[in-house]
Amino acid sequence: MSVFVLGIDIGGTGSRVALAELDANGDLTVVATRTGPGVEVGAGGSNVFSIASSLVEAAEETWAEPFGQLTGVGIGATGIASLAENPAPVLAEISDRVKAPAAAAIDAVTAHLGALGGRGGVVTVLGTGAISIAHSGPDERGVLSPNWTRTDGWGHLFGDRGGGAWLGRRSLELALRTHDGVDPGGRSLLEAATRTFGPPATWPSQFYTRDGRAGLLAGFAVEVAALSRSGDAVATGLLREAGAEAARSALAAARRRSRGARGTGPADDLDQPPHIALTGGLIRAGDALVSGFRDEATRLRSDVIIEEPNGGPLIGSATLGRLAAEGKLRAQDTVLWV
Fold first, then answer.
1. Can you tell me the mean pLDDT for 55-77?
2. Cα separation, 314 vs 324, whole angstroms
3. What is the CATH number of domain 3-117+311-337?
4. Which residue intervals define the domain ATPase BadF/BadG/BcrA/BcrD type in the entry (predicted)?
5. Strand (E) or helix (H) holding 134
């Protein structure tokens, strides 16, 4: 009989649920997916768990037969630690519905599981937001201990350095500097932003009054990428800057993890060459961002090992569900819930 897990990935601009089949070797293959809405944040917080519940319901309706054979559910979501309610009641409800264990984690954890397959290292995720997360890998029993160490993920107002909203905000800021006659370098950005959002005088009302402004800002990254591909040096520089910011966060997470593992020693001392991977939808913005990441990471640590990600956060969410089913997860406050 086939064995299945459910993986749910919820981001700022959309969500997905995957039905994944587990083979005899413990490998997961996504056999079907469905999409859903992105997270909205208002005065009452995030709607992330109502999205998760609706995706589980949609999975049951769409995949009725394999749904009855689920062994675990994994949920990875943005803003789950700081903007959502306590995950415990919703996890209990989902677990009861599927008759199997359920686990939830910040999206960086599922991105890490997707990119490195449960191995130790650092993963930096660039989507609407940005976060880096480090883990030492499983113990001898295959259990992931609660030693996840994160850097950034502070949201578009305070951080998310190098992410889509950060890039959009930096680009529009430069466009307005050009509009104000302070810096002529953002002429192409100003023209692109005016085509997208209308006259600059209307931008404050469009952004400041909108619940989903992080997604709106991140959407402008598409225009920045197009300008870079057309040869615009300013747009290319912004993409490289985003990559460099991401690299700084990655190496900071590696340093913090190394210090935490030893319990002593300076924060900038790494015993072993760090393994890092860059993932997330924003890396499709172009080579300038990826090369900016590689160049800054190498400058900061010459022996850094940059790995290509094995998979994305959706397979990482399914992996979280598999580990929950196997009892190989340990909860960590603000990071992972089982």
1. 91
2. 15
3. 3.30.420.40
4. 6-285
5. strand 130-135
